[in-house]
Amino acid sequence: MKMLLLVIVSSIYLFSQQDWINYNIEDYISINLPTEPIVFDTLGTTTISSETDSYIILITKMNNNSKVNAKISSEDELNKFYEGVVNGYLKSTKGELVDKNLSKIANLRSVSYSIRLTRGDENRLYFIHSIFIEDCMYTFQFLQLEIDDEELKETRDIFFNSINISKSLNLQDQFTAYEEVSSYKLGYFVGQIFFYLILISIPIIFIIRRKRKKHLTSGSS
Q: How would you write 166-200 as a 3-class SS string?
């Protein structure tokens, strides 16, 4: 019985992935996306967008250029940088932190966190995974309505579990040579920028989703 259940679960998982598109962000980073992505540059940052009727995926790449100049020379400094990123994002969105964890992808340190935003009578959940590597900050975001949380859990797992980074990279590839401002302050600045990029690039999917649900409700009555 347990073996049969395992086969059924595995089949469902494989079926749910079969239409996803593998996309190479860099030679050393790839990700699976549910739809053909749109790629554009905003304020010198590359944004990759993949959308469905139920959620939005946004991937951003920010170079550690003269505007940021993050100083990361140790694992402790990297963790402080990530702490600043999370708090900067929270400050900009005025959201509520739901969860935060320092984690690893392959041999690299990363941070995953989720926040809740209330807009009128609507709650939104933003699930985010950020990683600093090769002098760039990569942020993977899954944006949805809270009402769809259980329904989209498996889809979120498929997305975040598909982040693939070369195992040839290690912690040394996450350090920099800059020595100007503290890692926390720079992370805080970066976290704020991510939110403003969302405001510029995100479509009105939440409004569309809400209207579609109201239409279905009125149609069934």
A: CCCCCHHHHCCCCCCECHHHHHHHHHHHHHHHHHH
Report residue 13's pLDDT band, with 50, 70 and 90 as the boundaries.
very low
Q: Express each pLDDT in 118-131 by its tens digit.
A: 988 889 999 999 99
How far is the CA of 21 from the CAs of 13, 37, 45, in angstroms? 15, 9, 22
Q: Identify the pLDDT of residue 206.
A: 53
Q: C-alpha distances in angstroms, 82 versus 37, 78, 153?
A: 27, 6, 24
- Residue 31: closest CA among 40, 22, 18, 39: 22
The model's pTM is: 0.76
